[in-house]
Amino acid sequence: MSEYMSRPIIDIITAQRATEGAGFPIRRPFPTAQLDNLDPFLMLDEVGPKDWGPGEAVGAPDHPHRGFETISYILSGEKLHEDSTGDRQILGPGDVQWMTAGSGIVHSEMPSPAMREGGGRAHSFQIWLNLPRQYKMAAPRYQFVAGDETPIGGSADGLVSVKVIAGQAYGVQAVINTHTPVTLQDWTMRPGGRSDPLTPADQQMALYIFKGNLAVGSDGQSVDEGKLIIFGAGDSIELAVNNDAGEAARFLLFGGVPIGEPIARHGPFVMNTREELVQAFEDYQAGKLGEISR
To answer: Which of 15, 26, 159, 213 is geometrically suited to a Cys-Cys bond with 193, CB 3.0 to 4.6 A?
Structure first.
């Protein structure tokens, strides 16, 4: 008998389709009417995939944030990031940007000049991660990890590979520095692949499938793409892809230690109280969050 306790499935949420920014399509498991947040995660958007023609690609022009972190993970296409701290960078396939808005930042997320001119497939994740009260007014911080620098773990049989963005898997540790303990990983599991990853017992864990089908839990429950699986208490998760599956499964495994503080959120700001929220809007309108120099 295993010394580890397998986490049970406590809920399965279907991602909702919507349009964001200047008109790009998303698939969003939360926040929705079914699920407001998954403490400490505030939002998970799968952006695209969308095939843009020349001159068609759109993004999210200049907008502010305060009180949380935004994580961009690019699967395909290119995005131009610019912000009020002076950072400017083009993100490409596999790249990760972990931006701590903290006390306040203005940024834009637009297609790169090459994407604007020539078009192409855009597919990425945009994730919002809450900050505890003690870090909400921290100095803004920008972390970037190129796709070829992201640590990769995997099974000995080659059927499972994991890009370790935060946390650890298969003995491989992420290079991103987080304010609170967080797991964020991109898993690819080929037909016949199996894994029982250990997960920190103090983290609330979830899994979002964005390609293929996955057998989950001790009874091998079949779950399709576009579904978010929320797990209960335990320290491991049982995952497999059937031998006769037509394609590999691809999913984000993520979680964090719940913050457990009040959330006051509206638009681009996430604070603890309504008064702090009002202050954030007033500070932005007064220009205290800065502006992007171009």
So the answer is: 159
152-163 tens-digit pLDDT? 999 999 999 999
Residue 189 vs residues 49, 135, 193, 223, 234: alpha-carbon distances, Å? 20, 36, 6, 14, 22
Q: Residue 217 has which token pair?
A: 């839990």
CA atoms of 47 and 72, how far apart (whole Å):
10
Amino acid identity, position 197:
P
- By 3-state DSSP, what share of the chain in percent is helix, strand and coil, each rounded to 5? 10, 50, 40
Residues 133-172: pLDDT tens digits? 999 999 999 999 999 999 999 999 999 999 999 999 999 9
- Exposed, middle or buried by CB within 10 Å (0-12, 13-18, 19+), for 19? exposed
Could you tell me the CATH superfamily of domain 9-256?
Answer: Jelly Rolls (2.60.120.10)
Take residue 252 and report the two structure tokens written for it: 């984000």
Structure tokens at 285: 């309108």
